[in-house]
Amino acid sequence: MWRFSGVRAALRGFRAAAEQRSRAEAAAEKAAGAMERAVVRCVPSEPKLSLSFALADGSHKNMQRDQSEPLGRVLSRIATNALKGHAKAAAAKKSRKNRPNASGGVDSAVPGSEPAAAPEPVVKLYYREEAVAEDVLNVDAWQDGAVLQIGDVKYKVERNPPTFTELQLPRYMMAGFPVCPKLSLEFGDPAGCLFRWYKEARPGAAEPEGGGPSSLSPSLPSSAWTETGVRERVYTPSNADIGLRLRLHCTPGNGQRFGPSRELESVSPVEAGPGTCTFDHRHLYTKKVTEDALIRTVSYNILADTYAQTEFSRTVLYPYCAPYALEVDYRQNLIQKELTGYNADLICLQEVDRAVFSDSLVPALEAFGLEGVFRIKQHEGLATFYRKSKFSLLGQHDISFQEALESNPLHKELLEKLVSYPLAQEKVLQRSSVLQVSVLQSTKDSSKKICVANTHLYWHPKGGYIRLIQMAVALAHIKHVSCDLYPGIPVIFCGDFNSTPSTGMYEFVINGSIPEDHEDWASNGEEERCNMALKHFFKLRSACGEPAYTNYVGGFHGCLDYIFIDLNALEVEQVIPLPSHEEVTTHQALPSVSHPSDHIALVCDLKWK
Question: Which of 101, 249, 307, 446 shows a CA-CA span of 20 to 30 A to 116?
């Protein structure tokens, strides 16, 4: 009888990486079909392992067992389960025999023909064709490539195969807009997974050449589904798909082996898109990812769902916008298409709901090569995405303005000035605004690092002095990160600053200082006046200049958003033109059926000096 030595056996050989994707998928499915699967999940940090398999009677077993338990106990338990399953199947067969037949009689069993009680099935675990001793611990017994035998049925043991822990299609799909499944993997990598998209066949439609269900997926009836030919994670429905549901067949992988496949169908059919969107013309300038020397940067307030779906928003802020166009599922289709179409290297977003980040933005942008980090504020927050082929994340240095001002010695001098104005101090410290700071390193040149800051300053029109103080805290913190923690790295500072070019905040950023007698120190009246002179270290400019507006709603339009860059290290290669005034006002104002936010994205290509 074979026993494991102290050194655990190596995992089985991996499939050749050079196989074509379709051949690899066929091999994965064929391997699964040759022998039943017994999937084992065994993680060193957890006390139990799980064992999952299907018995001959069709019942599915999912067992949780201690890793330190002897194998014999598990095999005994499996035998008991198999015996119970056999008994249930026999009882069901007998019940069927005693049902009334078509002539009104009863199909009863022949007397004396009752089946004898089935013996307990032989249950064994084999590794390399030798039985594993029953005193071997579970953690060592259940090796990848072992064979579990239950009676006459054999199961191939797959230990920690790539597995989907979450797989979901979006609820709302439109023609012309990319559909990207949300997926989470254990022991796998999205880049190593295999995908096949199907669509419903229209009644009476001829099956397209090469269409029909894949031979890898016999559960797809040829009369109901046809293969689209798309074998990537993202599928963009065409107008021909309107009214049809979609189906996705996916096999989890990690570039070396594959796990159990899964299939899922869309809840609703593909709907018609809104026609031309405000960003369609802009995408003509961003068809490809930029070369390594450039950094395409996007800053965009995407309008949080928590604000868009209120009664106040529907009736007062955006009464001109069709109610369905304010719904999160609709707007996320537009946001995903807009963002992915920019082929950006850096994307800084404001007003990002936590669920929108995890359920919508991460899956969609991940499929296009970007990775993201999130910083919550209260009901929404900030997100920064970066292209993985160009950058890696070295560190995150986010702060809350209120917490930093009160507790960080870096801002001691500013706080001492503010203390002289108790009413203003109280208002400043009530604000929940945050600053997201990510330090990135070039994957092509490790000497090139960059500090990417992202914020959303206080919104109130009379909050000018609050925004000045928030910006002073932000710039002091960014200086600490870019000069002390990572000496000499350049800065890109994106955000919705809620300040037009005529305000003190903008003057402070561009000029490097602001006098104590500036009118914005009394932006909310004399009672809250807080005169102080401020200065900062950087030489910054607005990469996209001063557009007529970046926010356009029924009662206001103005430039509130900027991408500030470090002039000592970066220069502007090109600015992607904003939508025309005609495009913005086609449906009166923003948001609309063709634009998902009340803000407009800023997009520019930056260049290292």
Answer: 101
238 and 302 in a single domain? The answer is no
Is this structure's pTM higher than 0.85? no
3-state SS of 164-224 is EEEEECCCCCECCCCECCEEEEECCCHHHCEEEEEEECCCCCCCCCCCCCCCCCCCCCCCC
- In a domain? residue 365: yes
Measured distance CA(70)–CA(68) in Å, rounded: 7
3 state DSSP class of 159: strand
Segment holding 91, helix H or strand E? helix 71-97
pLDDT at 434 over 80: yes
Query: What does 281-305 look like in DSSP terms, one character per residue?
Result: TGGGG-SSPPPTTEEEEEEEE---H
Q: Residue holding tokens 């989907």?
A: 164
459 plus 554 within the same structural domain: yes
Same domain for 467 and 322, yes or no, is yes
463 & 318 share domain? yes
Residue 185 falls inside a structural domain: yes
Q: In this structure, is the dihedral angle defined by the CA atoms of residues 147, 150, 154 and 155, taken in order, positive or negative?
A: negative
The better pLDDT of the pair 209, 282 is held by 282
Q: Could you tell me the residue range of the domain that residue 182 belongs to?
A: 163-204+224-265
Residue 410 DSSP code: G
Encode pLDDT of 473-482 as tens digits.
Answer: 999 999 999 9
Neighbours of 41 (CB within 10 A): 19
Q: Where among 265, 288, 318 does a domain terminate?
A: 265
Burial class (CB in 10 A: 0-12, 13-18, 19+), 272: exposed
Among 496, 561, 598, 605, the active-site one is 496
Q: What is the CATH number of the domain that holds 246?
A: 2.60.40.2700
The reply to whether 260 and 332 lie within a common domain is no
Q: What is the CATH number of the domain that holds 137?
A: 3.10.20
- CB count within 10 Å of CB 316 equals 11
How many structural domains does the chain have?
3
**Which tens digits make up the pLDDT trace of 526-571?**
999 999 999 999 999 999 999 999 999 998 999 999 999 999 999 9
Q: Which of 600, 41, 66, 526 is nearest to 301 (CA)?
A: 600
Q: Omega of the bond prior to 591 within 30 degrees of 0, cis? A: yes
Q: What is the pLDDT of residue 82?
A: 86
Residues 553, 572, single domain; the answer is yes
What's the pLDDT tens digit per position in 300-326? 999 999 999 999 999 999 999 999 999
Verify that 153 and 168 share a domain, yes or no.
Answer: no
Examine the residue annotation and report whether 189 is marked as an active-site residue of this protein.
no
Decide if pLDDT at 18 tops 50. Answer: no
- 106-145 b/e with 16+ CB inside 10 Å = b? eeeeeeeeeeeeeeebebbbebeeeebebebebbbbbbbe
Q: Is residue 403 in a domain?
A: yes
225 token code pair: 């589904």
Is the four-CA dihedral 409, 411, 417, 418 of positive or negative sign? negative
6 inside domain: no
Alpha-carbon distance of 497 to 265, in angstroms, equals 42
**β-bridge pairing 346-352 and 294-301:** parallel
Angle at which helices 464-479 and 412-419 cross, to 10°: 160
